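This part of the workshop introduces the protein records we will be handling. An example says more than a description, so a record of this kind follows:
>
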Amino acid sequence: AGADLARPLRWFGPPHYLDLQAAWVLGDERTAGPYLLRVRLASGGRIPPHTHPDTCPHRQPGGGCRSTESL
């Protein structure tokens, strides 16, 4: 299923990044599969270097997650 680009985005702001707002466009970081998060920053806002935990044990070339059962 693709992103429904016609629907309004639900913007939220993480409490520890006051200059940042984000909205989920596709998927969810809590489930397997691709996801897309749109981010907007206030003028002069910055996102510090950081990582995102990835629970996918076997990343596919297209970016998808492959379960260990298919190996």
